[in-house]
Design a protein that fits this description.
The complex is a heterodimer.
Chain A lengths: L2 E5 L2 E5 L4 E8 L3 E9 L6 E6 L5 E4 L2 E5 L3 E6 L8 E9 L6 E2 L3 E6 L1
Parallel strand pairs in A: 2-11
Antiparallel strand pairs in A: 1-3, 3-8, 4-5, 4-9, 6-7, 7-8, 9-10, 9-11
Chain B lengths: L3 E4 L2 E4 L5 E7 L6 E7 L5 E8 L5 E2 L8 E7 L2 E6 L8 E8 L9 E3 L3 E5 L1
Parallel strand pairs in B: 2-11
Antiparallel strand pairs in B: 1-3, 3-8, 4-5, 4-9, 5-6, 7-8, 9-10, 9-11
Classes of the chains: A mainly beta, B mainly beta.
Chain lengths: 110, 118
């Protein structure tokens, strides 16, 4: 059974204070690892897909990296509008079922 | 990106009544849609996979007679919570995969529907 563990559960940063979120996973045959952003009361919004160890992707202040056991979401000089819950999910096998972690609640104070 | 629309966004109902939630893919045809349930501060838990023109596939522990799923067209799937009880109160989210997308498993999510059963 696929397992995804995200840490920390919650993270408070000052505006401009860079940090990283962690997503550790255990799967049998990773087909893809996904990062989503979720605002309160909303559905998840797609950020990145990573397929193989060593892969990196960037979007504005966010950069996602992947190893064989974990993924990091690096946030550089965050702004208050980056405050949200960040979800990590994996897909394995031949279907498209996502297994989600519980998320990291990020709060960026001005 | 692709757009998935969910309606209603909020619904309050009395215990024992049934509630229908709609999920539409607005700019692509989705042969497969997924229904998730999310409790506060918890992961999204997959409830079922909705297949156009055939029966839904339910995850272990999900009552198929309780949560009726219909995927009548390539752009619409519905989730009906039958004889709702307070413990069914939750945030229900649908998602769909754009089959034209090259990214394996990339799903687009609806805005979610918050159900409160009194």
């Amino acid at each position: 059974e696929d397992q995804v563990t995200q840490s920390p559960e919650a993270l408070r940063l000052q505006e401009g204070e860079s940090s990283s979120l962690n997503c550790s996973y255990t799967v049998s045959g990773l087909r893809g690892l996904f990062w989503y952003r979720q605002d309160p009361g909303k559905g998840p919004e797609f950020l990145f897909t990573l397929y193989s160890a060593g892969e990196e992707k960037e979007k504005e202040r966010l950069k996602a990296t992947l190893t064989k056991k974990e993924s990091f979401l690096h946030i550089t000089a965050p702004k208050p509008e980056d405050s949200a819950t960040y979800l990590c999910a994996v897909v394995s096998g031949s279907n498209y079922k996502l297994t989600f972690g519980k998320g990291t609640l990020l709060t960026v104070n001005p | 990106g692709a757009v998935v629309s969910q309606h209603p966004s909020r619904v309050i109902c009395k215990s024992g009544t049934s509630v229908k939630i709609e999920c539409r893919s607005l700019d692509f045809q989705a042969t497969t849609m997924f229904w998730y349930r999310q409790f506060p501060k918890q992961s999204l838990m997959l409830m079922a996979t909705s297949n156009e023109g055939s029966k839904a596939t339910y995850e272990q522990g999900v009552e198929k007679d309780k949560f009726l799923i219909n995927h009548a067209s390539l752009t619409l799937s519905t989730l009906t919570v039958t004889s709702a009880h307070p413990e069914d109160s939750s945030f229900y989210i649908c998602s769909a995969r754009d089959p034209s997308g090259r990214n394996t498993g990339e799903l687009f999510f609806g805005e979610g529907s918050r159900l409160t059963v009194l």
